[in-house]
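Report of the visiting student (M.T.), summer placement. My assignment was to run the structure pipeline on a short list of targets and document each run. The first record concerns Apple domain-containing protein.
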Amino acid sequence: MSPGLLRAEIGDVADEAPSLKSSKSWRYGLLEGATASDDGFVEESQGRCSRRRIQVGLLAAAVLACAVCSLRPIFAKRSLEFQAEKTAGEKTPKSAIAQYFSNEDLLRQRESSAQKRLQAVYDAQREKAKEHDESWSRQRYDAQEDARQELEDQQEMAALEQQAQQQKQQQSPWAASDSGHRSSQRYAHAQQQVQPQPHYFPQQLQPQPRLRPPQEPRPFQSQHHFKYQEHFQPQQPHLAQQSRYPQPLVTRPLPATQQPLFSETPAHLVPQGEIPGPTAGQIAHQQKVALLGGVKRGFQPLGSVAYPAFGGQPVKRETEAEKRAKAKAKVAHKLFTAEYKEVMQMLKWQAVRSCSAQLVNVEVHNGQPIASIEGVNSAAKCQMACTESLQCDAFSFRSRTGDDGPKNVCFMKKLEANAEPHMVIKDGLISGYPCCRPTSSPTEYIQSECPGHFADTDLSTKSGLPSKYGITSADWCQRVCTEDADCGAWTWGEARNVPGLSDVCYMKKLAGDEAPGMHMKQGVVSGLPCGCRSTAMNAIWPDTDVQRFDMPAPRALQKPEPASMLCVALMLPYSYEQDMLVMQFQEKANIFGCDHWAVYSNQEMKLAPGLVTRRVQTTQRCEIGGEFGTALNLGVFTALWRQVLLDDEYVKVNWIIKADPDTVFFPERLRPILKAMEKKEGNGRDGKGVYLNNCKYGLHGPIEVFSTRAISTLANDFETCFAYFRKLCSGDCLWGEDMWVDQCLQRVANVTRIDEFKLLSESHCDPEPGWNSCYDHSKVAFHPFKDISGYKTCLQSAREVDKRYYR
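After the run finished, the structure tokens were exported:
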């Protein structure tokens, strides 16, 4: 504002109030910014002004100051624009005012982001402390429950002993003095053990070392938590009284909104051997929640909750049904363990005895019966009994109840000299010959009494023998080992043009109770000597997890036909799956419609002419459990994949399909999908192969489709996956084979995974209504069908649909 304009406004005010110009407030307040030429004009005005005039002047000055402040940014902006126009065509990217406000917004955003991060860290630490408190509360409560139960058992035992002693005294009054004295001594001794010690915890309630709280500090604990003594050592009574109440931890208090609803009774205020119950406030709160129809913060109705003595959330007591279920599971586990050991012992015995294949639905018609044994639950045990009986030349096992009698009966027969057994077809019977019997001389054997060879397998023993050179075959190496009485195992170098390995027979000693170490090594073949002189302990068997998950190196792949398939199935012996596979073989259904197929089992069985199972090293026994309550069959199918790799037939095809015997699988429907997949995906990422996911919940086991490159990648990474998931789950993940393979190929092997939900229609994967009619021609497989009639109905329905659809 110019000095002239200011002078004119001041003059108008001075005319109305002459006395105002002489006041100090006017001279030093309003005219502070006036120029020197205006001083004379101001001094001429004399007089006094009323209070109202002064207020008007002050208000005018305030309005003037506000106007100047509001116009300042406009003048500044105009000045910047004027300077920008003066520059040679240069444009300011952003005005100073806009830059100022953008910086303010940026600061606010950064401050808000920092506050959110701090709040997230605080919440995470609080949740971690809460979980830690709950875990420790459960452990503390379990320790007290066990100790209290033990205390009650001791008291009951002492009472029973005293009662028995009193009865004995009544029956023998002449010995009352001596026996009564001894009884009182025993009772006093028992009472001395039962009486609580004057420690912070009684002797019976001292927590086990594994239940001690962790030593690292726990952030954000509530104030009613107390720090336990690091070691619970016996103390003197006066020391125990001094240390009865431990000092509380110095912790950061929680906000009022995050404090626990109820503070439970601290452990040091609870009588020894008792568990604190709910307070009156908790009871009232539970009643209120029950009336409202809900439960808040995990508090359950009274009677079903155990309130732990060391903070945290209440721990739910086990109901009677849960206790019965746990006891039932424990009994089932014991039975499973006993059965597993029995089957394992039998399989190892078969491995060293060169047992011949069992003939299904066949009876030995000729021969003289010498014995019949009831209660034999498998043909393998019947074959073992026949082998141990020197007079037995053939056996027949009745596998199911029929017109001839009950099931599980073993019949042994003796044949005439040089007579061949006469076999006839008969349903429900399994027949065969005895296994190899040891001879007195190591050289007295026939070729059929030699155990099988193990390709790509090396054996390690405690001591060895001199090696033999120039041995050109594995059979020759086995014969050389058999002729040496000290040789218990052998390994032959199959690889060509490898100095020190090719055509070398490594002979090794093996004690009667020694199990040879088993290692996968490409280019070698190993085995045991002929003559059945090895014991069951000498069997070549993968006993440890390292040996089970040690896969042979994959072979070089050939160039097969497009969409060529090798289909495999694992059969449980002596089950309904035998008849299912025989029917499928006759109908050319399931895996028998593929280019190549193979049936595996832990028993070598001739199911039908042209259909013989291949032996796999597994008991085929597993438990039910894990997060999803499924069969924990990883070990079973690991043995299957190892044998598939050893058999070496997968190099002839592009795809490997594993299908269960109760899966209605149509290879002709799968082939167009595989051809399209080969054109689209090729060999997948980095040439590691492709596999198909058949369910929205993840890979399911009834049918699994892998490219041969995916199987080769799986073989290379099998041991790595085993170690990875062991570390991830801190032990066994308790997964089935399908989930384990799916996770291994995704997380570790980096194999391309393609969702193809047309592969499977299954009851466990949310199928469409009427899925089991098998009328959906777009589906490749249907599962499960566990009886022959249902399987045939589905098979015929699907084939009729295919005829109409492809007509």
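The first helix runs from residue 3 to 16. The first strand starts at residue 305 and ends at 306. I thank the supervising group for their guidance throughout the placement.
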